[in-house]
Each structure stands twice: as structure tokens, then as C-alpha cells.
Amino acid sequence: MGNNQIIIKFLLYYFLCTLSSFSQQNIEDKKIGKVSKLFSSDTVLHVKMNYANKVIRKSTNDSTYLKIDLEYQIGSDAWKTLPVKVRSRGNNRLKNCYFVPLKLKIKKDEAKGTLFKGNKKLKLVLPCLLQKEGDDYLLKELLAYKLYELISPFHFKTRLLDITLTEPKGKKIRTHKMKGIFIEDIKKVADRNGGKVLKRNVHPMQQNELSSVQNALFQYMIGNTDFSTAYQHNEKLVFVDKAARPVPYDFDMSGLCNTSYSVVSQIAGEELPIKYVTQRMYRGFKRDDEVMMAVRNQFLENKTKMLAIIDAYKDHFVNPKEYQRCTAYIEGFFNILSNESKFKKEIINRARTK
Questions:
Q1: Across the chain, what does the average pLDDT equal?
Q2: Which domain holds residue 91?
């Protein structure tokens, strides 16, 4: 082969590689800032399903799914059916709850042209127990997700559901009407922010400083200690702009939710010096004062918007007292945040060093 032929082949190879890289970059760029249709609306989505909790619990795992039909309302009287695969997920809720939390897989071809287009995977959060308070607990957990959207771009999008579950129980059929939450997949969060999902653990002090403090102060606001960014317990990590950034989820053990089954969490066997989940305890690490003050001001500036979000869901509460408790709990946080001495005593002085 002559030198000219070698050069031509090299240039052709280089051109094809460059074209492929450019095409891939275009695809990635189109994902930045994009929110799928499913999560572009805050209206309640009505959903119907048919399965037995017992079967889901016993017959599925991380790699084994069952096929079911998901029906969802698309008009005042119109419904559409979407075939999906489901499996059980989670740890504490899977062990202790009546309703099994689910992971959904949707084929791209099945989702095409539907409300679910662009969502290959979804999480479905359901009330834990058969109790009248279940819907209000779940609603407060949804609000935690919505409040964090105001603070950080690295958040999960959510959608409130009204679910009718038809459950075969032996020869009988039981119908459950309850609220639920769809949560987008972590890859969608990474794509929207032009990053990648991090599966390895990263110590909080090696994570982006601003994102780390935003997450820690948010967890303090909702009274949640059931998380660990170091071990990715109820936290995911995305790598954006050359830095690891936390994405929190699963808030049912928080003081904001204050469920009947809530307990003070122990992460890696560590016992915390609080007795009740409604007691706040700052779990963030010591950071530069400038960053702490910047995040503090960010929360204070968003106080009115946060209370407005809670107020927007007022009519969805079954028990009006739960709405009042929810509002009062968040206002209690802002009472601490706006007071110089309380902020220093409860947050700055309690920041972790290890």
C-alpha cells in the first residue's frame, strides 16, 4: 500500500471519528435542560393497575420483573393502556410496608407517542401502610421533592398520582384508592445537567462545595437524618462540571413527613443524639463561611416561594391539620435560619469535621 493510500485512509478514519463524536455531542447537547412530557405538568395523573403485592414481593428482585398493564387517563373519560414491567425495590419500605415500592421498565417502542415517551425507567412511590394517614404522608414527601427544585438544579422530577389498584387476594378482589409519586430515573437528572451518573462513592468533602451545602441545609430543613452522601444512602451522585454533586431522595423518615413508622436513622451503626424525627440535626460538613452564608441567603430568598408550593397542594391533603403541621414545620426552619445566633448555634457550630 502506497503512502498516499495510507494517508487517505487515515484522513477518512479521522473524519468518520470526528463526525461520530460531533453527532454524539449534538445528541448530548439536546438533552441539556430537557424535561420529559410526563414531568412537565403538575396536574394529578390518574392511574390504574392490577397486581398482587404478595406476588410482587415474592416473585421479583433486581433482575426479575413481572409484566402488567398501566392505565392512565388522557381525557375526562378517555384512558390509555401502557404495557410495563415492574419489580420490587427499596429496603426498609420493602420489608415493613404493605404496599411494595416499585421500579418500572418501559420499552422505547411502547412509550413512543405516549405521555411516557423518553422514560425507560421510573420509580413509583406508594403509601406504606393501610392507614388513612398514608396519602398525607406521601403528599408531604412529594412536597420535599418540590421544595428542593427551588434550591438545586440537581434534583429528581416528580409527578403526583391518583392510583386505583385492583389487588387479587385469593378468591377475592380488593380495590385500593391512594396517592402515588412517579420519580424520574437518575440518568435523566444527569442528562438534563450535561453530566454523568456516578456509581462510586465520593466523600462529601470531595463533592462540589455549594451543592453539598445546599443538600445538607435542605435535609436539615425537612428534618431528615436518614441519608448519607458518602455511602449514597438515599442519595445519588452526578458528575457535572468536573465535580460530584448529590441528588437526594426518599424522605419518608423525615420530620416533615413524620410518619407513624418513622424512626431516627442509624447510618453505618452511628447512633444520633436525637429521640424523635421531628428534631432537627445538621449533618453537613464544615465549609467556608462564604458558602454557608450564600446558601443560607438562597433559602431565605426562596421562603415565600416554598410556602407557596405547600399552599398550592393544600386541597390535596385529606386532613387539614397535616397541611398546617407541614407549613408550621417549614416556618420553624426559617425561624432558625433568620436568627443569627440560632443559625450559628444549630448549624454552623454543629457542622461535622469527620
A1: 93
A2: 37-125+155-186
